Each structure stands twice: as C-alpha cells, then as structure tokens.
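#onboarding

Welcome to the new folks! Below is a worked example of what a typical request in this channel looks like: someone posts a single protein sequence, and someone else replies with the predicted structure as tokens. Don't worry about understanding the tokens yet, we'll cover that in week two.

Example request:
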Amino acid sequence: MNLYGKYSHSLAEIYFILISISVAKYFAQLDPSQCGKTFNEPNLRIQGGVKALPNSWPSVAFLVFQYKFFLTTNGFVTTRTVRGECGATLIEDDKLLSAAHCFKTSITLSDGTKVTVQPNIYHKDLNSMYTIYLGLHDKTSIRPENVYNLDSFKLHPNFDSNTLVNDIAIIKLEKKATFNEKIQPACIPLNVEVNFVPDAVVWALGWGAISLDSSVSSDILKNVRLKFIDDKYCGSIKNDELCIGDLTDGNDTMKGDSGGPVYMKTKDNKQVVVGITSRGVFWNKKTVGIYARVDSYLEWIYDARLIAFKENSAVCYSSKFFFTITFLTQLMYNY
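Example response:
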C-alpha cells in the first residue's frame, strides 16, 4: 500500500520543498522595490579605499562593543574598559546582519591576560555591551538619532571561533528604525537578481584601519571597489564563503571592517548585500578577503528570526518542525 497516496516524492524531498517555499515567501515579503535604495549616488568609479559620499550606502551600520569590568592584579582591583568596532548591514527596520566573531565571549589584554566577557554591575546582559549606529557617516559627529540599542543577537550555531567558518550573526534592535535618506535596508540575494560571475565588481565598506600596518581606524565611512576572484587565492574556503579582492592594486578591507557588507549593484541600481566581511589572507604580498556568502544562509536567517527573537509567542518550535507538521496535515487531508 502506498502510504503517501498520490505523493510520489520522498518525505525528505517534499520537506525540503516546503522549507524552500516558506523561506522564499518570507524573503519575497521584503519588497525589492523598497530595499537597496540610495539618495546619493556612490563614487563607484573610484578604485582603492576612498571616503564614501554621505548617504550613498544607507544600509551600512556601525557596531561597537564596549565592555567595562573589574580586574584584580596582585591584590589590586582596577576598572578596565575594552572597545571593539565592526560593521553591520540593515536588512529590515529592526534586523541587521554582521559577523559572528564581532560578538565576544572572551578578550585578551595586552599583557596576555584572558578575561571572560559576562554581565556585571556595568552591564545587565550581553546585549548592553553593544551599540548600533545607523545613518552614520562620520564617527566624530554621532547624533542621538544614530544610536540604537540591541534587543538580542544570535550567532550561527556552527560558527567556529578558531577557523571563522560560518561567520555570520543576526541582530535585533530594541526599536524599529525609521527609513529616510540616511537609513534604508539593503536588498538580499533572493528578492533581487544578482550574478555571481568571475571578475564581477563588488564594493566593501567600513570604518576600519586606514592601512594594513595601522591600528588607527577611519572616522569617515570608506568604500573600496573589489572583484570576485578564484577561490585558489583564498586558500581553503567553504562553499558558503566568497573569495574577493583586488589582485592588481592590492586593495582590501582592513581590521575594523569585519561584519560590514559587500554589495553588488543590480541593473536597476539596487544595493544588494551578498557578503559579510570575515577575514583576510595573504597572497603574493597582497591581502585578499574571505566573506560569508549571504545567500547560503537564507534559511538560517529565517529560522533565527522565528526562534531566537520569539516575535510570536505562539512559536515554540523550530520552523522545521512547523514545516513537517504542515506537510503531515496536508498528507492526511489528501490521503
């Protein structure tokens, strides 16, 4: 007896189809006509890391980690503060993507002392150690409307802090952003069409170090024109990573750019976030970059929204459980 009635596909195949459809439906709701907008055309023709024009990349965000704690050394207690900077990309009015390694579980001080990052009298929880800045161009001119607190964040469950594999995180803000000429969501690679072809031009952004041998970060947002390059230049990378660089002039993202976006432009001038800055490697005395490939994580992004952020209190199980129940219900109905 055929227990599946008129269904000829395996349960696994239909399960996968249902997941794909549900994920696609969610991302289709992110109206492509309402994402990737810009109100000031970027200086796209300029190669090398240059200062971006104001409001030309309105989905890029600045992420700051600031941890204040007590440190006991030789019986003396002192107060220390450690700061870290990353980038992020706005994809909804209260959701952003960044790199998982931007969120700290421990820090190592200059003398080699390792400190566990945990809540204390200065920080009620981990979220309070981070601040997001939207609509920001110059770090020296921060205004109250630029500042957003974190409600929560979730790292990819298979993130490896040693190898930086699956280096992606999703952030939820405490309050929704109001879209204007300075703040807009980026498009993602499902609700618009992009072509991943060799030598395709992309743009990376950030407030990172001003040069490879400098620890001084840029006050002004910078953009750099790069290209997709052969994976061989990045060594051993995974299918869900992108190898991007500039083999001619050696331009690349720098320390402090981590978590920031890599954009492609569509034919109708939409800004699409296709990569998240993860790490760099050396090739022939030049640095090239490895980036988390956004379209490889669309299902995880969908799941993270439902489970980690608990937007609907009725959602008690993973979306995979929901999809399975949906399938079985339809199966019983048609049997």
